[in-house]
Specification:
The protein is of the alpha/beta class and 111 residues long. It has helices at residues 2-16, 57-67, 81-87, and strands spanning 21-26, 30-37, 40-48, 71-77, 96-101, 108-110. The protein has one domain (2-110). The protein has three helices and six strands, in the order H-E-E-E-H-E-H-E-E.
Length: 111
């Protein structure tokens, strides 16, 4: 499931920035997309499964990305979006977005 979300998101990112290099790191239950341009990391997208949403280390990873001035996108199952927004409520600004995907369809929508 998260593989298809990762493929879709990669296509979107490539359309937004055709010159960017996008790498996918597929872990057991999540995917991390890294968007680089001119050898500089510009954005990191975490695509989380229902299971990986339970991992407490995620929030630390998210703040590490934001503290480096890198754009962060968190993509979770739609049913988890409200919970994710509550966890990250202190974060505001254009370098941060939470999106949800339909676990049945693999479709994604921004929040």
């Amino acid at each position: 499931m998260i593989k298809s979300v990762a493929i879709q998101r990669t296509k979107e990112l490539q359309e937004e920035s055709p010159d960017a290099q996008i790498t996918q790191e597929l872990l057991e239950d999540r995917v991390i997309l890294s968007v680089s341009m001119n050898n500089r990391l510009m954005e990191t997208d975490f695509i989380e499964s229902r299971r990986s949403c339970l991992l407490p280390r995620r929030t630390t990873e998210y703040y590490d990305v934001l503290c480096q001035g890198i754009k962060l996108a968190i993509i979770v199952p739609k049913k988890k979006v409200e919970e994710e927004m509550a966890k990250m409520k202190r974060v505001k600004g254009p370098n941060f977005v939470i999106m949800g995907y339909d676990e049945d369809m693999g479709e994604r929508s921004a929040v």
